[in-house]
Design brief:
heterodimer; A: alpha+beta; four-stranded antiparallel β-sheet; 18 helices; 20 strands; globular; B: MetI-like fold; 2 domains
Chain lengths: 521, 310
Amino acid sequence: MLKSILKAVAVAAVALTAAPALAQDDNRPDLVVAVNNLPGSLEGIEEMGNVAVRITYSMFDSLIRRDFLADGSGTASKLVPGLAESWTRVDDRTLDLKLREGVKFHDGSELTSDDVVFSFNAGRGHGYDPLIGAARRFMLTISHVEPLDKYSVRVVSKEPDVLLEQRLAGYAFWVVENKSYMLKGKDAFARSPVGTGPYKMDEWVEGEYIRLASHDDYFGGMPAAKTVTFVEVPEVSARIAGLVSGEYDISVNIPPDQIPTIESYDDLKVERIVLDNTHMLVFYTAGPLEDKRVRQALSLSIDRKLLRDALWGGLNYTPNGHQLPSYQMWIEDYPEFEYNPDKARALLAEAGYDGEEIVYKFPLNYYLLSTEAAQAMQQMWKSVGLNVKLEPVENFGQVTDPNGTVHIRPWSNTHRMPDPTGSFVPQWGADSEVQNNRQDADRAWDAPAEFNELHEVIIASTDWDERQQAYRGALDIWMDEAPGTMLYNPLETYAMRKAITWKPYGLYYMDLRPYNLQIAE
Amino acid sequence: MLWFLTKTLRAVITMWLVVTFVFFVLRLSGDPTMMLLPDDIDEATRDFYRRLWGLDRPIMVQYWSYLGALLQGDFGISFRNNLDAFGLVWDRVPKTALLTGTALLISLAIGIPLGIVAAFYRDSWLDRGVMAVSVFGFSMPNFFLGILLILVFSLNLRVLPSSGSGTWAHLIMPAATLGVSFAAQFARYTRSSMIDVLNKSYMRTARSKGAGPVRRVNLHALPNAAIPVVTILGFKVGELLGGAVITETVFAWPGIGRLLTNSVAARDLAVVQCIMILLALTMVLANTITDLAYGWLDPRVRVGAKAGAR
């Protein structure tokens, strides 16, 4: 009896001394991130907008990882091992990947080829009638994935695909834990997902916050923060005030004109990134814009540098053609978008434009600073004789309403892969909505046959030189036909405490892996 | 009984009209797939979600199926997060009730005494001062006042949290923001209604009986002056909820108002409808309570109703 009491006392004593010791061991900080909005789902491929990927990117890993920081820029496109430690090409359509051994999911189970096969199966994201529709456009080229052994998988494309590795490192190819997904079902998994990433679900209070906890067994090392809480703060002034008062450690979506305010505080700094996204204009090729010379004049009369300087503090840039420097096929010597009001006037005279009203319809509060840009452009257009009427509306449905009049609309193209097939082809090619406007056939762009033939080469060819030549040709036609134009790539600004070392990426991912997040005491 | 039936029938018709109006306005003014999916998504994906959410059916079919489900108590599923719309809304009710309730208390606690004082010292510097302040409070838009408070108390003094709802300290600024303009309004209503009453002959009678000023105000003036103020109160409930929409967004207060803003912007119909029904119900309820309070405050109304019923 006495023995057992003594034993109990001893156990209690050990427990009492051990508990604080454990707690003291973990003196990592809790990180609070103020975000404009929270997603409705954390099922990685169900919601892939800005507000979702900034959270899910640290919950899931991909087989191959795009190293955005390879050159320090945050927009690099070097491929490095992720959950796969190595991969080999079998042929044009086939890639074999060797998984890391001993990778732990958030629930403690080990990553095997079963999880990869399940994650990329047709019925989940890209078959004929999949469970989730949003990822189809990213996964559609995949035929199937088969397990070779416990730690090896084979990914097979439907057609020859030189970009298969890039695809696997891009949107939607995030690996989920198969058993918990099947047991919970999609909707429950979306509230409490299980991945391999550095942070796992802790608590989600709808409309208030999502708190993630460190996944201490993360294969990439111990995460820097004990917890990361994404707090919903829709109002930008409240996001800034909370940062100053110490409630938040990082605030996202800071407009460029607030940068000096943030920098005026000793303990705060901003991290900026020019996004892999381009603000565009679409010129509907009917009505007053039927003559391509009028469309060319619209583009020629926009002083993009002035817009960038005035609205974005000169901190962003306009790509040279529909491409980015991070593309493997980047055509460095491709000409810039020209600003030439005289040429615009000459073209309008040639086309016999008689001042017919052109309607520019745009949704308010959709693209940052788009209203200001529209007002400035209206004056630029006016100065060359273009009579553009601005019509702000509430949403995109009203912009494209087939019963309304619209000749120009704003748009943005995200470069989801560092290749034309990640943006130019799907947004402007033969299958694009621009060429197949189903709401109003008159508004569809009737692209020259050659343009679509060149796109076919970009899609199907496995010869990089041939692809690049076709790309240049397609860009030339696009510039000449001017079914639209590019304005600039917007700037995204994050404000944070100086003690935090963290770099943003050109896509909206917030990468909180140990190599990109350090917090000084 | 008849009174109750008429009231209920009127409430049901009101709510049906609200639901129908909101349904068509939201449906015809924006496509949810445009709001919830990225701007550069392909048509095939858009079609997938149109089918999934039943938006590919003719609008009347959608309307009848929505109404049918509603009659069975099914408010539908949010497009945004696949959660039950009613549950989503109901979870937010306590927060909005706390915010608007506190704001209402603040506004009454400030507005009524100020109104009484102003009326009692009519045309004095005190009266003019109170009324000047009340014009200021009334005409200040609450998004502006909210941001001003954040600047002063969070940014400069660093004494109050700027947003969220975790502690009592979080309640102070949003409740004050929402309460101030109503306090100003209540001060004005109370003043004019008190001035009316103070000039009545029964006040002179009370005075001649030798009743002191406190007794005169509390027992004779206030109950009579309260009737117009109570009437206004019923109407103000709607305005209060409207003000909550803006205040909740400014202070990231997780209530109905912010849910409504997000849901309207996303055209998340099931959630918007659920909120509208709840708001309509609140308004009907507030008006009914006002009616009842009349009877309690003013015996003439009670007697009149009885006489009418007879």
